[in-house]
Amino acid sequence: MKHFAKLAAGLFVAASFMATAASAQTVLRSSDTHPDGYPTVEAVKYFGELVKERTAGRYAVDVYHSAQLGEEKDTIEQVRSGVIELNRVSMAPFNGTVKESIVPALPYLFRSEEHMHKVMDGAIGDQIKKAFEGAGLVVLAYYDAGSRSFYNKQKPINSVADMKGLKFRVIQSDIFVDMVAALGANATPMPYGEVYSSIETGVIDGAENNFPSYDTAKHFEVAKNFSLDEHTILPEVFVMNKAAFDKLTPEDQEIFKQAAKDSVAKQRELWAAKVSESRAKVEAAGAKITTPDKQGFIDAMKPVYEKHVTDPVLKKMVEDVQAVQ
Ligand code: GTR
């Protein structure tokens, strides 16, 4: 069934490409794992509208939401190889490919969302953008994804001790695997689309994410204990295949960059509203939110930093992030 859906999406892509040629308009394809209406999906649609308007219709963007083109890891390969031109994904699945992407994925490195914005909007954000070019990608924008916290079907979490022995799905990054191990629990990295059924059938006890994902992926139905430990403030990344970007005229490149920048403001606004909406929705549906003592979680992260922040470039970046006020 899944393969069927992918095949159908592939045919659809081919069809839209042919329609493109006929109308002399280049339609760029963008993937997103989230459903229509999710802040990232809407932000990329908005980016597409701006690009279309500002290039007088020479370029348009089709957003394939709801993982129509596959799970995040697969679509990253698609955008790197140029099968698709654009992709909106989390920063974490790049941790094994782009060394610098590790920094924003480190637990409790950012003190707040404001701190994260300052860092990503400044020199460190630019340094990470430069590093993505080595992976054949141009970063058009960083978007908000709030903070990630653990949720599970077994029990409320009030301290690190409560995490012991629980099995969590984590986003596909070694940092997250080691973070969970450091908390005395077990981590299984798996595609986002498999999480709901894995919790339901008991393969795992829970996962970790922000309120909008917990809500829209319906994980709150199967894992009711949400502990607001806020272990990462992990940004999203909106990328373009570098060869496709390089083919644009310098004027069009500026249009794309500016449209992406404009879409950031839009996404941040939509994001803030969605967090409140989702939180209210899951609480009304019976999710129990606890606020564990964060210091215990922070203290437990020492081995994660010792293992992953050994490279001098990363050490310097971490210091630079900490110095941003
Ligand atoms: C969400 C993020 C997605 C995806 C997902 C996951 O917060 O927006 O891009 O990475 O988490 O956990 O797989």
TrEMBL record:
GO terms for cellular component: outer membrane-bounded periplasmic space. It comes from Sinorhizobium saheli. It comes from the Bacteria. InterPro entries: DctP_fam, TRAP_DctP, TRAP_DctP_sf. The keyword Signal applies. Keywords: Signal. GO terms for biological process: transmembrane transport. This is C4-dicarboxylate ABC transporter. Residues 1-21 form the signal peptide. GO terms for molecular function: carbohydrate binding. The keyword Endoplasmic reticulum does not apply.
